[in-house]
């Protein structure tokens, strides 16, 4: 495991002659932490969830994004950047937190896993139509014409990073994280493999709940604050319409987009506008008032707080399913 890079060898050797201090310092010099756990840094909650579920008692996980913080705009302190370089392993998702991407690239850590490299990302804008998509047994998507995927207008400039909101894609990421932790800590390879299998099964069960829970529904279009649910919409044959695009903090919403949403809400019998837990619900409330419909929460699970409808990813995803079923009139 990782040796603290900033402590010179001579200092550690000298410390080994000093009583209790020697125990800690000599332990560090042996190539691992005194508690024997793998030091894993996660960029934000979904990555923390994977690391803890797969690592269990063998890992100590530090989340760079504190609970309640919107992860897209995270800025790292000098201390966080320094501590990142002392990690035994890093689990992050490139493309969602620019400050983290830069720090990881400069960290010098050997065992780094980028979740974005473990499944196929796509470009999504503020409108994603999942009706043309079918899903093969291997979890990849293609449309009915055999192409790799289709998005409506309003295409985004970059890839959509919100892969964790599709349980199938998140399962693919989990397998890659499991292999990365095993490479960083070969002594516990069997445990990581077993924990990964357990998590993949839980995610498979969650996928089945969404498939069954959204089969019989009166409507198939839902409106969200920002475009976080494109992969979910594609997976289950829904249409996501977002007030703004991929950036949850964007307040630059055109009048034409608001008129467009008003029209499609009437055309597709939308009775709910979804807000989130970590961002200002003002835009969702304004649109809902204009339409004369209700608001509810559809959580992108970028962090767990006291306002979250569950204690972890799996519980909040099930709350999301219940919210969608209510909004879409699913039985």
Characteristics:
about 325 residues, alpha/beta, 5-stranded mixed beta sheet, 4-stranded parallel beta sheet, about 40% helix, globular, disordered N terminus
Task: Characterize this entry briefly.
With 331 residues, the protein is of the alpha/beta class.
The side-by-side strand order for the widest beta sheet comes to 5-9-8-10-11
The tally of strands reads 11
How many helices? 11
Distance between the termini: 51 Å
Radius of gyration, in Å, reads: 22 Å
How big a fraction of the residues is strand? 5-15%
- The 3D shape can be described as globular
How does this model look, in words?
It contains 11 helices and 11 strands. The chain is α/β, with parallel strands linked by helices and 331 residues long. The strands form 3 sheets. A 5-stranded mixed β-sheet has the order 5-9-8-10-11, sandwiched between helices. It has a 4-stranded parallel β-sheet with strand order 2-1-3-4, sandwiched between helices. A two-stranded antiparallel ribbon has the order 6-7. Helix 10 (282-291) links the parallel strand 10 (272-275) and strand 11 (294-297). Helix 1 (9-15) packs antiparallel against helix 2 (19-29), helix 6 (167-184) runs antiparallel to helix 7 (189-213) and helix 7 (189-213) runs parallel beside helix 11. The longest helix has 25 residues, at 189-213. The chain is globular and about 60 Å long. The relative contact order is 0.12.
Helix-strand layout with pairing:
Layout: H1 9-15, H2 19-29, E1 38-42, H3 45-55, E2 59-63, H4 78-84, E3 89-92, H5 98-105, E4 111-114, E5 127-129, E6 133-135, E7 141-143, H6 167-184, H7 189-213, E8 221-224, H8 230-235, E9 239-242, H9 255-267, E10 272-275, H10 282-291, E11 294-297, H11 313-328
Parallel strand pairs: 1-2, 1-3, 3-4, 8-9, 8-10, 10-11
Antiparallel strand pairs: 5-9, 6-7
Helix pairs in contact: 1-2, 3-6, 3-7, 6-7, 7-11
């Amino acid at each position: 495991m990782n040796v603290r890079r900033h402590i010179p060898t001579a200092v550690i050797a000298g410390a080994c002659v000093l009583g209790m201090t020697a125990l800690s310092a000599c332990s560090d010099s042996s190539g691992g932490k005194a508690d024997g756990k793998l030091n894993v840094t996660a960029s934000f909650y979904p990555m923390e969830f994977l690391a803890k579920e797969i690592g269990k008692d063998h890992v100590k996980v530090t989340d760079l994004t504190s609970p309640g913080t919107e992860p897209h705009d995270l800025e790292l302190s000098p201390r966080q950047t320094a501590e990142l370089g002392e990690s035994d392993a890093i689990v992050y998702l490139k493309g969602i937190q620019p400050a983290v991407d830069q720090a990881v690239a400069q960290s010098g850590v050997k065992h780094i896993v980028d979740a974005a490299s473990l499944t196929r990302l796509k470009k999504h804008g503020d409108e994603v139509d999942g009706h043309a998509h079918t899903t093969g047994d291997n979890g990849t998507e293609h449309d009915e014409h055999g192409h790799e995927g289709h998005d409506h207008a309003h295409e985004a400039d970059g890839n959509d990073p919100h892969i964790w909101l599709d349980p199938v894609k998140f399962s693919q990421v989990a397998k890659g994280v499991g292999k990365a932790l095993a490479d960083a800590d070969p002594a516990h390879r069997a445990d990581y493999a077993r924990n990964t299998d357990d998590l993949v099964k839980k995610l498979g069960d969650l996928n089945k709940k969404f498939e069954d829970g959204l089969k019989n529904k009166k409507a198939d279009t839902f409106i969200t604050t920002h475009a976080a649910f494109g992969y979910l919409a594609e997976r289950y044959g829904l249409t996501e319409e977002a007030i703004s695009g991929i950036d949850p903090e964007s307040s630059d919403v055109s009048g034409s987009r608001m008129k467009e949403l008003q029209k499609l809400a009437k055309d597709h019998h939308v009775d709910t506008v979804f807000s989130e837990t970590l961002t200002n619900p003002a835009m969702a409330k304004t649109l809902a008032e204009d339409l004369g419909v209700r608001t509810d929460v559809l959580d992108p699970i970028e962090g767990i707080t006291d306002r979250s409808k569950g204690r972890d990813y799996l519980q909040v995803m099930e709350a999301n399913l219940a919210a969608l079923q209510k909004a879409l009139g699913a039985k």
